[in-house]
Amino acid sequence: MKTSKQIVAIERCVIDKFNGTRHVSNSQLVLNNGTEWNDICFHKPAQLTVSNSVEDKQLIYTVKLTFDSMSELDSQKYYVYRIKEASGRWLLIGNDDRPYPVTTYTNNHPASISDKQANEYIVSYKNSVPVPQIEV
C-alpha cells in the first residue's frame, strides 16, 4: 500500500516548554503529556528532506523542513517541531537536548507582483538518531 508523504500540518513548541519524550524504539517515541503545540499556518505542501552521511565515523541524519507562510514567525528561539504527513503519521524534529533545530527566516519583497510574496522558513537539524515517528 502506498502512503502519501506530503506534509499537511506543522506545529511547534518552544524548547523551554517541551515536556520530553519516552522512546519506544530508536525510530519511535511517545510524547509526554502537557506540551502545548502551536499550529503554523503555511502554504501547502511543505517539503521535508531527510538524508544521512558518515561524519567522523558516525552516522549523522540531516533534516531540512522548508515551508512558506504569510505569517512572521519568531525565529530567534529554539523550537521542537511536530509534523504530520497526509498518511496520518506524525514525526518529531528535535527534542529538549542539544543540538536544537535552527529556524532560518527569509522575508520576501518581490520585484514583480506575480512572484512569491510569502515568507520562507527553513528548519535545519542534525543528529545521530533518525527522525522518530510519534506513537499516538
What can you tell me about this protein's structure?
The structure is a single chain. This protein has 136 residues and is mostly beta strands. 0% of the residues lie in helices and 51% in strands. The chain has no helices and 11 strands. It has strands at residues 7-14, 21-23, 28-31, 38-39, 43-55, 58-69, 79-85, 90-93, 102-106, 119-127, 133-134. A 7-stranded mixed beta sheet has the order 2-3-11-8-7-1-4, with no helix packed on it. A hairpin with a 4-residue loop joins strand 2 and strand 3 (28-31). The model has no long low-confidence stretch (mean pLDDT 90).
What's the short story on this structure?
Helix content is about 0%, strand content about 50%. It is mainly beta and about 140 residues long.
Produce the secondary structure layout:
Blueprint: E1 7-14, E2 21-23, E3 28-31, E4 38-39, E5 43-55, E6 58-69, E7 79-85, E8 90-93, E9 102-106, E10 119-127, E11 133-134
Parallel strand pairs: 3-11
Antiparallel strand pairs: 1-4, 1-7, 2-3, 5-6, 6-10, 7-8, 8-11, 9-10
Our count of helices gives: 0
- Low-confidence regions: none
Secondary structure class reads mainly beta
Largest sheet: 7 strands, mixed
Query: Beta fraction of the residues?
Result: over 45%
Total count of strands: 11
Topology order in helix (H) and strand (E) letters: EEEEEEEEEEE
Q: Which term fits the overall shape? A: globular
Spatial order of the strands in the main sheet? 2-3-11-8-7-1-4
Features:
seven-stranded mixed β-sheet; four-stranded antiparallel β-sheet; mainly beta; 136 residues; single chain
